[in-house]
Amino acid sequence: MDRRIRLRHLQVFVEIVRQGSLRRAAETLFLTQPAISRTLAELEEIVGARLMVRGRRGITLTARGEYLHGHALGGLSALAQGLAAEGAGWSEPVAIHVGALPSVAVRLMPKVAAILRQTAPQLRLHIADGAHGHLTALLRSGDLDAVIGRLGAPELMQGISFTQLYLERVAVVVRPGHPILADPDLRRIAAFPVVYPTPQSAIRPLVENLLIALGIPPPADRIETVSGAFGRVFVAQSDAVWFISAGVVAREIEDGRLVSLPVDTALTAGPVGLMVRAAQPDTPARLLLRQAVTQASTEMTQSLQFP
Fold it and tell me: Which parts of the sequence belong to the HTH lysR-type domain (predicted)?
């Protein structure tokens, strides 16, 4: 391989292909679009060929691009395996502390934990869940090495690098047999208690925007929480209507223990990703976590249809 090719070239190239556009790749890698374009141009100059063609529908790989993409994926995978081998030689277990929003703790983290048990058994995983503001504060203070959750408001993301993994909507759920199911109109929620996201949660502004778009005032009879444990029990035992990230209640909806109202919540779709401190250098442990999270999210989005 040409010695001028750096890891950043391969990471940017693979991310552009994964996201389907330079703009989204720039967002997920926390870089500017000119920086992404410049890195791609450097790589194309080094290999002496155009790697992709950009059009209205995104990017299309050239034949040379397809060839390099396969090798780039293999190289990054080999790097992860090498780091795992290094981890296997650690004399003592190495701890990594990860914060996960409730939807991530339920849906993604079991897969991440299973992958890490196979690839890096000496990596001791510590998982904390909670609201977005709480977890990002712990990330900034150094009490957490990474956080997996929704992209927050700009003021909450200062000094944090965000790599997008997938998109997730807010679901509006009730118990089976709820009276609102006879006429599932969100304008009827004023007649019922509402379990509503807290002001510190990443989904609060999304839910507020949805209600504003529909001309619905904020519910007066509401309990504000992001506790999945409370919501599951309270909604099952009452006529409450619950606004919650779809991942938190995915299993309950699939099993029929809760019902998602057939309302359009596309306005609440938002990116879920891996967050680290922007100035934080990657260690072998963090690189192994990043690889496991990427693999787990890819497998999940391939096997599950997000609401």
Answer: 5-62
